[in-house]
Amino acid sequence: MQVKMKLLSFCPSSAVSTSMPDLIIFFIIYHIHKLESAQFNVTGPGHPVTAVVGEATVLPCHLSPRMSAENMEVRWFRSDFLSFVHLYQHGKDQYGNQMPDYRGRTELLKAGITDGNVSLQILNIRRSDEGQYNCFVQDGSFYEEAPVELKIAALGSNPLISVESHQDGGIRVVCQSAGWYPEPKVLWRDPSGQELPSLSEAKSLGDSGLFETENSIIVKERSNQNLSCWIRNTFLNQEKESTVYIADFFFPRVNPWMVALSVILLVLFGFIGLTLYLFKIKGKHLGEIRKRDTEIRKHLGEIRKRDTEIDDLQRELNWRRNVVCPGLGSSAPPVQEANVTLDPDTAHPHLVLSEDWKSVRWGDTRQDLPDTPERFDTEPCVLGCEGFTSGRHCWEVELEMGSGQCWAVGVARESGGRKGGISLSPEGGIWAVEWDWDHFQALTSPETPLPLSRVPSRIQVCLDCDRGQVTFIDAGDEAPIFTFPPGSVPGERIRPWLWVWKSQLSLCP
Question: Contacts by 331-336 with C-beta closer than 8 Å and gap 24+?
């Protein structure tokens, strides 16, 4: 299975009226575009991968055509692009922001990486590992990804058969087992393999997310005294079976005291077996606790090296900025330095625009302006005159800092609401960062706090319409401030957006 991330199309005019030189030019342009886009595909298995709890499994993924991925970024993630399952970058594995549940359990199989094999191995499979994974590969600004579905199964313990009591003229026999997934099928069978009707059945999910089952049957003298408890995992097409034989003297008509004694012995042996099994489970849990303690100590050591990690994170953020605004050699469309001006028809009556429409400030007096549908009437906002539907565009905003001053910088949907109270969040059609009473934050839902040490004097806004992504960069040292991830911004007309209160903002020429 593969996911195509880039499309190129070219539609010539009518073939009837096209001259021979025009056809030659068309085919030259067509093949140039084709060469630029046909770099590689990322391909998964095309079918779900099955893994067994407690074992290791490999999620297949490779590049087509075969090429070395040693100097590419390979990112395995689930639903959140930034919180990754495994990251290979700059020729080595990166564990800074790895999801806690996968720490110490993942490995990129590098034996075939020079041939484009970027498969991921996951150790000690857990029930929670089930679901979809994404294999994302990026070289410069060219990237592709493919989904891989992981199905989890577990083969539980051997059935434990115990004799419980006399009931309905026979003996009640119980079969118990634990550690199955998905829900298993439980049957009683006689020596010829015929299915026997059970008295009761109970299944439940344990703390680990695996099924526990208990099934009972009534055994009567000279009928089905030799029987088997058969538990099957229909997903793995595997089963486990235990057999018990109950002699005639266990039944009340023969000798009630002997039956009682035998039943007690069977129950005792069953209890001992169950106790040994529980101790085994307890020992396994204690081993996991010790392993977690070791991981905690390891994390404490990593915290002591936070300065090195911060430098690595800074390099990664600078690299991410290069993805948003790629340099030479990229096959993605170039970044357009947008010459943004402000639209006076959208400005709130308290906002005063400069004559060249390049700056806006808060005015204490409300201006007498027409209340048109385009104008914001409650939130002190103003839109840029320019609107973008495709391509990659950047512009800078100079900020005024001070106590009691508030501002926000970003982009907004042209179709978003402008009357009454509007939601300053992606749900309201706004993607921005905000300085509000000494708080610096991204206007997500809920807000994401940003370091006060990173409050800049100039912010560069980078909008990638094709990828649906907005990134804010400190124009002073070119360090990224915050990124709304790919797919956040819908594919419709997007315009620059400013929010001003007791402050002044200016668009840099």
Answer: 331/36, 331/37, 331/39, 331/140, 331/141, 331/142, 332/141, 332/142, 332/392, 333/391, 333/392, 333/466, 334/392, 335/392, 335/393, 335/394, 335/462, 336/391, 336/392, 336/393, 336/394
Residue count of the chain: 509
Rounded Cα gap, residues 63 and 40, in angstroms: 6
Q: What is the 3-state secondary structure (H, E, C) of 452-498?
A: HHHCCCEEEEEEECCCCEEEEEECCCCCEEEEECCCCCCCCCEEEEE
Q: Provide the token pair at 395.
A: 């512009």
Q: What does each C-alpha distance from 494 to 331, 403, 428, 464 come to in angstroms?
A: 24, 31, 13, 10
The answer to whether 478 and 314 are in contact (CB under 8 A) is no
Tell me which DSSP letter residue 116 carries: T
Q: In angstroms, how far is CA 128 from the centroid of its own chain?
A: 13
SS3 394: strand
> Region 114-123: what's the mean pLDDT?
96
Query: pLDDT class for 4, splitting at 50, 70, 90?
Result: very low
The percent of residues in the chain predicted with pLDDT above 90, rounded, is 56
Q: In angstroms, what CA-CA distances link 24 with 19, 27, 28, 29, 36?
A: 9, 5, 6, 9, 19
340 has a pLDDT exceeding 60: yes
The CB-side HSE value for 313 (13 A sphere, CA atoms) comes to 13
| Residue 467 and residue 494 in contact, taking contact as beta carbons nearer than 8 Å | no
pLDDT for 293 equals 78
- Is the pLDDT reported for residue 20 higher than 60? yes
Distance between CA atoms of 132 and 117, rounded to whole angstroms? Answer: 19
In this prediction, residue 57 carries a pLDDT of 96
Mean pLDDT score across all residues of the chain: 84
Asked whether the CA dihedral 417, 423, 428, 434 is positive or negative, the reply is: positive
pLDDT at 146 over 60: yes
pLDDT-based confidence at 206, cuts 50/70/90?
confident
Alpha-carbon dihedral of residues 475, 477, 482, 483, nearest 10 degrees? 80
